[in-house]
Design a protein that fits this description.
Helix content: 40-55%
Strand content: 15-25%
Mean pLDDT: 93
Number of domains: 2
CATH topology of the largest domain: 2-enoyl-CoA Hydratase, Chain A, domain 1
Radius of gyration: 20 Å
CATH superfamily of the largest domain: 2-enoyl-CoA Hydratase, Chain A, domain 1
Low-confidence stretches: none
Largest sheet: 7 strands, mixed
Strand order of the largest sheet: 1-2-3-4-6-8-11
Number of strands: 11
Length: 284
Amino acid sequence: MLTPGEFAGFELRIEEPGIAWFEFNRPDRLNGMRPAIKRDLVECLIQAQMDDAVRVVVFTGSGRAFCAGDDIKAFSSGEQDDATLVPQIPPGHHDAIGTYNGLRHLSQPVNSAIRNLDKLSIAAINGVAIQTGFSLALACDFRLAGESARMGSATLRFGLLPDEGGQYLLVQHMGVAKTLDFLMRKRIVDAAAAAELGLVHEVVPDDELAPRALELARELAEGPQVAMRFLKRSVYNAAQLSWEQSLDEIAAKTAVSDHHPDADEGIRAFSERRDPVFNRDLPR
């Protein structure tokens, strides 16, 4: 069961119907990431996946930033988060093996946990989204941006790489040519330019961002969840499969979804000229 509350670097609340709302709450550090935050995020996302009452996951930030990347000041100073039940995990990066371990076991699992969700995810990008924050937003299924949002990887400004999967996600969203231009020229773009590049789905006034994200989340949460989760996975799989493989893959899923009560309800509602009421078998 996913439990709302305060966690390392973010607050989690539950909105009806089954919307897990993650809000990064360290605006004084531009919601920069630390190892403890990443660990708590992964744990909560796994719980969200396992909790049948959760239908949609939303990420946003407080203050002037969605997430401005890793908290470099904390990394360099050795600053620690408050004590937790489990001993703190060192960030790594002290040598080549430490960097590899830190990325594979601490940083990259956050975006993998988002991508592995069967439930749909939304990034409501307020303010700055850089490096870690940018790749987290790209890992979500939907991205809304406030008009003042600015985003990019820009790791080459420090001689670093987009090491949490940013290069893969950008290629999926923009293709190889635009990704090379974006990364090699160290671009940080505003919300309007991001929309033109296909990096965000919608740009809204800053004060409408949270209400619009909640509106979209509720729209998605009221849809037929079993079919939607199958379809999400099938779309992502289609990007990697051949034509014949994709046909077989969606046929196997359809063999389940066509016999789910939501399919019966959808057909009955169409015949009766009314809106369907899906998800009767899910907790509310």
